[in-house]
Amino acid sequence: MTSNAARVLAHPSREEIRVEGVLHALSDPVRLRIVRQLADADDEQACSRFDLPVSKSTTTHHFRVLRENGVITQFYRGTAKLSCVRADDLDALFPGLLDSVLGGAALQAERLGEG
To answer: The whole model's pTM is what?
Structure first.
């Protein structure tokens, strides 16, 4: 019999999330791109749905940084690892921060002609 314990990913509790960790996680363009895509989605997204300009191992690293700093939550459904933004936790701790960063990123992408 196999255990699901090996498939449970560590996440910080709401009380453990620090603003400097969130800002660090969002400061990388690839991680910000991931969060923008997750925030625009109607539901959780599988890691395989992201077309990123980095290797698979680097993609895994970026998702881990986001998860360990409390920006996203990840869980397994079957063999797929799904992710979603922890918007409720971030808004409770740092009201307006996530919306402001994502809004600024959208304006920047528009200004620079990026998707």
So the answer is: 0.91
